[in-house]
Amino acid sequence: MAKAPTKKQKQDDRQLIRVFDTTLRDGEQAPGNSMNIEEKLRVAKQLQKMNVDVIEAGFPIASEGDFEAVKLVAQQIKGPQIAGLCRAGDKDIDRAWEALKYAGDKGRIHTFIATSDIHMQYKLKMEPAKVLAAAIKAVKRAASYTPNVEFSCEDATRTRLPFLAEVVEAVIDAGATTVNIPDTVGYTIPFEYFNIITYLKEHVRNIDRAIISVHCHNDLGLSVANSIAAVQAGARQVECTINGIGERAGNCSLEEFIMALRTRHDILPFTTNVATEQLTPASRLLTNITGIGVQPNKAIVGANAFAHEAGIHQHGMMMDKSTYEIMTPESVGLSASALVLGKHSGRHAFKQRLEELGHELDDDKLNRAFERFKALADLKKEVFDEDLDAIVMEESREDVKYRLGHITVTCGSFAVATATVQLEIDGEPVRTAELGDGPVDATLKAIKKLTKTKAKLVQYNVGAITSGTDAQGEVTVRVAEGNNVVVGKGSSTDIIEASAKAYVHALNRLNLRQKRLKETV
Ligand SMILES: CC(=O)SCCNC(=O)CCNC(=O)[C@H](O)C(C)(C)COP(=O)(O)OP(=O)(O)OC[C@H]1O[C@@H](n2cnc3c(N)ncnc32)[C@H](O)[C@@H]1OP(=O)(O)O
Ligand SMILES: CC(C)C(=O)C(=O)O
Ligand SMILES: [Mg+2]
Fold first, then answer.
1. Domain range list for the chain
2. Half-sphere exposure for 353 (CA within 13 Å, toward CB)
3. Which residue minimizes the CA distance to atom 31 of ligand 1?
4. 87 CB near ligand 1 (under 6 Å)
5. Largest CB tally within 10 Å, which of 231, 251, 281, 290?
6. d(Cα 303, Cα 271) in Å, to the nearest integer?
7. Binding-site entries for Mn(2+)
8. What are the Pyruvate carboxyltransferase domain coordinates in residue numbering (predicted)?
9. Distance from residue 269's CA to the centre of ligand 2 (Å)
10. Helix orientation angle between 279-290 and 385-395, rounded to the nearest 10 degrees
11. Contact 115, 88 (CB under 8 A)
């Protein structure tokens, strides 16, 4: 027989904040952040490792791809609950459960409808009574599939409080076990949000039968502060995203929220299940996948978050780290590694460092990654963690039609840039030369000619992953053909080679996507 929880366990549970990660749903909604199924699964595996409580994997009715991604995450991820979003309508809910059912009792249907006057009048064109009825009907339908139902009052912070309380009470009666009070447009401020949650606790008769969740957007830069205020008022689930990505200015940043609770435990006596040393690997994984970096001064995961350049600070740090660091880099997974990786390093140190960074490769991939690492180490004095991340990302890419062979470029102030490119297409070597407006343009033109692609290059970004003139450059391109838009990434100490790799990567992904589409028709 199960033992009754002790007083301490009950107390701990009351102070436990469930972390609901919506990187794969709200995060992915933001321009530039879309991920394919395989990339979503990779992020979900990292979230599993980080031990978040709930992963919102997508919006199953949005597209076939989103449906498949939610289904795959529901099938493969063990531990966290898996949520899927759906509007308050039968078709959306049925479709969501079709994907979520693979998670069994860990599947959560998350349904929502807007409750503010602005949204009801202008967007939904529905009277409040109709919205209330739709909310109840949706929750009842969701509850017919699973007892794990979350309901969100979209635009809650601009909703009249008595109506908000009425909807929340009704959906709990209908079967919602989590009620989410989102600050959809990032409008509220901490004091007001605290009062909204307090109001609901005082005016909703059955509020103790559900967990109060909050979901904050960052339009005024207050999403983390608002989430903390809500927790202080009694919310026990916080919705957030890696790197704070999401609609417009983004969502509450997972790493900032978690580290605020951990660092200020003295006055925020709450706990989470999150393994904080997985925060940096998660941030880097997402950056690598989307190609969207975080600003250097970003709290917790920015390149400068633990850097000290000013003399007075450096002096303080040498005396005692607590003078200028309120948390350790190790606590967020940024280990000051004792092992410096360079051309004299061996396979053991390489493998161990990859594992510390959260990468598990099978023997074949590990061997190939090691070869790449050695080649890079020959070109650079020191290979940094970011270099390793880039190598692993390249190694774990899908099957390829096009393989980049050699590139020879001539260019200069007075020369017309010329690129000779050799590719393998389905294993056959092909070669051509092109002129261009600069070496990158010439190289990409040559690849376009060889592959005969009709796709348009719609975005090109270049950045240095590491520092110094021998840094790894990383190029991200976005390529579109019809409705298919894919991201390609390439890294190298040679920026022209990185550009070619990124372009070839994008063309391979486009080819794979078109092949899959044909197979499903
Ligand atoms: C605050 C948030 O983040 S909400 C989530 C936002 N995320 C997304 O929208 C991404 C996924 N969305 C999509 O793929 C599409 O918008 C779909 C598939 C959901 C719907 O596509 P379409 O049928 O073409 O509708 P469209 O997006 O143009 O308009 C939304 C419709 O849903 C209705 N609607 C919006 N929210 C809700 C809701 N919660 N419950 C019920 N109906 C809703 C709107 O009133 C509108 O209805 P109408 O078509 O009768 O005018
Ligand atoms: C669907 C809900 C939870 C949402 O994303 C929002 O209101 O911002
Ligand atoms: Mg949102």
1. 8-290, 337-396, 402-520
2. 26
3. 124
4. yes
5. 251
6. 27
7. 26, 215, 217, 251
8. 17-280
9. 27
10. 50
11. no
Residues with Cβ within 8 Å of 476's Cβ and at least 6 positions away in sequence, in order, are 291, 459, 460, 461, 462, 463, 487, 488, 489, 502
Interface predicted TM-score of the whole assembly (ipTM), two decimals? 0.99
Ligand 2 lined by 180 (C-beta under 6 Å): yes
The whole-angstrom separation of Cα 276 and Cα 283 is 12
The predicted pLDDT at position 396 comes to 65
* Tokens 């840039």 sit on residue: 417
How far away, in angstroms, is 84 Cα from ligand 1 center?
Answer: 15
From 154, 188, 237, mutation site for ligand 2 pocket: most ligand atoms within 8 A of C-beta: 154
Q: Which atom of ligand 1 is nearest to the CA of 154?
A: 1
> What atom of ligand 1 comes closest to residue 184's alpha carbon?
1
Class of domain 8-290: alpha beta
* CATH homologous superfamily for the domain 402-520: Alpha-isopropylmalate synthase LeuA, regulatory domain (3.30.160.270)
Render pLDDT for 116-156 as a digit per residue (tens, 0 to 9): 999 999 999 999 999 999 999 999 999 999 999 999 999 99
| Nearest protein Cα to ligand 1, atom 39 | 113
Is 278 a pocket residue for ligand 2 (Cβ < 6 Å)? no
Is there an atom of ligand 2 within 6 Å of 56 CB? no
Question: What whole-number distance in Å separates Cα of residue 501 and Cα of residue 59?
Answer: 32
Task: Please compute the mean of the pLDDT values over residues 394-405 and round it to a whole number.
Answer: 75
State pLDDT tens for residues 415-440.
Answer: 899 999 999 999 899 999 999 999 99
Q: Which atom number of ligand 2 is nearest to the Cα of residue 217?
A: 8
pLDDT computed for residue 171 by the predictor: 98
